[in-house]
Amino acid sequence: MSLDREASQATAVVYDHTGVEFQLLDLTTGDSRSLGESPSRMHRETWVEKLPVEITASDGMRLHGYLSTPAGHRDGPLPTVLHVHGGPWARDDWGYDDMMQFLVNRGYAVLQVNYRGSAGYGRQYMMAGVGEFAGRMHQDLIDAIDWAIDQGISDPDKFAIMGGSYGGYATLVGMTLTPDRFACGVDIVGVGDLVTLQEDAPPYWEPYMHLWERFVGNPDDPEDRERMKQKSPLTHAAKVQNPLLIMHGANDPRVQQNQSDRMVAALEAAGKEVDYAVIGDEGHGFQHWKNRLTQFRKTEDFLATCLGGRSSGSDFYQLGSWCF
Length: 324
Known about the structure:
The protein is of the alpha/beta class. The chain has two domains: 2-37, no CATH class; 48-321, Rossmann fold (3-Layer(aba) Sandwich), CATH 3.40.50.1820. Helix content is 31%, strand content 24%. It has ten helices and twelve strands. The chain has helices at 98-105, 123-127, 136-150, 166-177, 194-199, 209-215, 222-230, 257-269, 289-307, 316-321, and strands spanning 2-3, 9-16, 19-26, 32-37, 51-56, 62-68, 78-84, 109-114, 154-164, 184-188, 244-249, 274-279. The strands form two sheets. An eight-stranded mixed beta sheet has the order 5-6-8-7-9-10-11-12, with helices on both faces. A four-stranded antiparallel beta sheet has the order 1-2-3-4, with no helix packed on it. Helix 8 links the parallel strand 11 and strand 12. The longest helix is centred in the C-terminal third of the chain and has 19 residues, at 289-307. The chain is globular and about 65 Å long.
């Protein structure tokens, strides 16, 4: 993390699936001293480890990801959450993951796939996502759930899809374009309309707009614009078959609230089941503990209804959050 001027001492972070430890290293002697640990380490016996998996996509491309299952599970296929990372130029990695641990604790297997277009596996892996929004990038997710079913890990009738930002977009794509594959979906600050996502982009996105145009298209080009509309879940809202939970921050500068507002309006107009929550004092993702608690509580109640896992119900923390 840092060095002193003489490069004789360093601070370092050492991590695993239970959290992180910060260390002071003496580079001349090799000695180290602990400076502290993350609070998650207090419960290290509770956490399960992410296991790396390699999946062959239907076109032969090798995909990488992680599988996590409840500790001590032995009997038959599990209800499963396909948790899709945002970006898309990002990745799921190994280490402590509070949402994964939460979902596993509630009784679900959690599958995380670094679909093509993800970062961290080299340029070729990332650039394989060019033009593949709602195409091969989504097919990678479908190939991954087929793998989990074939391996006997997952119950094919109890698969949920969930994610934030691009992961929210992937959730909506899954629920609209492959509605028979998912029992339900949880979309957090997700994209419903690719055209207006770019048209409403914040000024600080300007250095990255070339990536959006290369991967998705240029909304000023009529042909690109039509393709983008067809790859937008908003266009296909009437195809949804199963329940959706949508959550959005009212102050989101990247994926503006109108993305979810219009998606929910289209779903309701088509008579679809959707639960919508707008978090008034949050942006692109939820940071304050009371809003995180709302997110987790809504998620566990929703998944318990459609997948049958455990929900802890209200507690004094939730009661306290209403006072702030």
